[in-house]
Specification:
The protein has 105 residues and is of the alpha+beta class. The protein has 2 helices and 5 strands; from the N terminus they run βαββββα. Helix 1 (15-31) crosses helix 2.
Length: 105
Amino acid sequence: MSKPITVTIPHQLGRAEARRRISEGLGGLTSQIGAVGELKQSWTGDRLAFSLQAIGQTITGSIDVSDQDVRLDVVLPGIFGMIANKLKGRLQNEGQILLGGPKRG
């Protein structure tokens, strides 16, 4: 069973800088969920759609960049659904580091 998670990360970078940081740092974020295969990504405007392989499962999602925040939507298949809350926290923390903001508990 798939489990969707959403993470919203505020920033003060402006849309263009947030988008640049995401483009350069997406690989680091995906490593947080054990991705080992090819990362596929495609920008359409300020939305990045992505998919990647991890432990034989395909994880899909999108990142929407606005002037004041970034919204990450990820669909976790199979076994990843059981650890969604833990992954959500890790993605939140790593995303805040990537965008230069403070960690939230």
